[in-house]
């Protein structure tokens, strides 16, 4: 795995992050015309391709950054911009994330971004990682990871940031937060998300030993929800999405908010406050 | 399920709630003679029937409000008054809750109470729902739900508010917090109780998709503890109760308190403070 | 079980605890020469025997206090002193805890310490119990319990304070926090540790009913991680330890810290602050 990460993409800093207003989770009402326009064009880009089916309201986001969809600052920035566009597009209710590469979903954080960089640059990189997590985990869309290959470390974080995980039934594909094996500490919001997914003890063993799980083992501990043959992963994701979209958006979204606020202690304040407000309006009768 | 709920009882406001002093969880010492007297008579009422076996100290509370034991304000008020009487009766140590109706334990909250009502009335209704939960979940009695029929939404909340759940082994009976399917958001104390019962991930999927589980599936995720044939549900509950009552009351009760305080974040302050006091007296040696 | 406890060791107060500076979790840097010296000698003592293999960095701590390794104040004091020595010894990275007695790991707290004693003495005893738990649960070493016999109550607490549990595959050996059966309330940090190990619902049933689990049942609910034949428990512990020590110490230790701070609410303040500091230094990029 370490080798995979070391061989991964080494893209430089593109400066695109500056286009991203970090705390701009406006309601879905205030759609910027410019963003909408780009969205309607189903804008493509070197590292990520988004297709929105306006008849179903479901977007498929394909990661296509060879060799292993490393999460470089460049990649993350593009990912977040696309996510934000979809989030603000009223016609989009569901998001499926998958990979165009053979055998890999995402190899996780680009280790070169943490090697020999200035503290400022490191900070910028980690901010982008956290932003990806916040946008996914706090998304108003129903989100499904169609995991069609290995998904270690940051790739696993991206997966568990989604509402549901469908993985290819192939024991050679693995998934897990294996940071500890590389001597890196998984931040506590990685841990929170993993605990919320597989429970405390499995998460504890998993993080302290940096375990990677084969697809069948991942299903056993609940790290993924379902295994399917390789050629059915996307169609199953589409079928599952239609079940999620049968639930009234508002009820599902607020249920999610309640989860995130109470189950993840150390959320950045601005974000937590935004979510608190949406919950407070629901709870007015209950206290 | 929506149909079941829509066809459910539509009883008006009876005003009985005003007889209930909401924050009156006195210790079991200060039994009012009047309440005790009524208790000895095993008072019956249109919607709920209570039989206390003074030789075993076990009361059976039967819900008998056709067609589906809907939790109207009327029903909840009667339920809470009966619970409070038993709680204050020193001779009662255990409570079994069941239904006299065929095929249904309780269909949950009476949806008519939330439709076209004033905010004040809605507030009164939700206060009664919360009061039911507080009284059950915080009860000093050992409590067992003998679930002899379907138990969606509020019926499920009532069940998971008990210490133990025995359900009829019939796949046609279902249980779950399916509020989201109706576009209603389950309050966070519903969520807390469900998470405490089945763990976080199962609760998350369950709430966001509003899932109803057949009895066998409910056993699989731990939403109920045991399945038995229909004609054995009450006798099994009695047998199980004798195991619970073999434990010294004081130790079991304080263990429960510790649970409720630390596992359910948003308890109303008065209630939390009362329980804190009982814990503080235990913890005096440990800090 | 009550009988076992009543027949257990009745050692008086030895005054050794005063040699223990309760809040002295100095970093591993400031090793006192005196402690180091004793350590190098692999000091033995009546109740506990420690062997440190300097080639592997793994210490084996053997409890050898007949008849049942009761946790008296004496025993706990000796246990904590040994733990502290190992903790401060840079050459020791892993600790295996086991028993030299036949059929019993540890019968738990010495009940005579809680019977007819002054509040001051009780306080001293409970402080020592908590100190054992803090030292184990917060240890920088990888810790494995090689459970070669029954392990009720405090013996179970000692086991779940370790990172990993290997038990003899013998249904006659049992483990569990059965305090409630004796009318004693398990303190909330017992509960926290159990919930972290087996999840909330299993812990709740377990504590409220004071359940003891046979080895196979303990494996089923996750109270132990692995069962092996009696003659392989120590060798398996050694093999497992080498896997834990393959992980960079620093990453594993901080992962543990993150766990303890966020998952155990009521830690004594001094201890929590020390751990907070180590986490804050890691999290500097993430907030």
From TrEMBL, chains A, B, C:
Top-level taxon in the UniProt lineage: Eukaryota
Keyword annotations of the record: Isomerase
GO molecular function, one term: isomerase activity
Alphabetized PROSITE patterns for the sequence: ENOYL_COA_HYDRATASE
Keyword Nucleus annotated: no
Record has Lyase as a keyword: no
Family statement drawn from the similarity comment of this UniProt entry: Belongs to the enoyl-CoA hydratase/isomerase family.
Name of the protein: Enoyl-CoA delta isomerase 1, mitochondrial isoform X2
Lineage: Eukaryota, Metazoa, Chordata, Craniata, Vertebrata
Gene (name only): LOC106606271
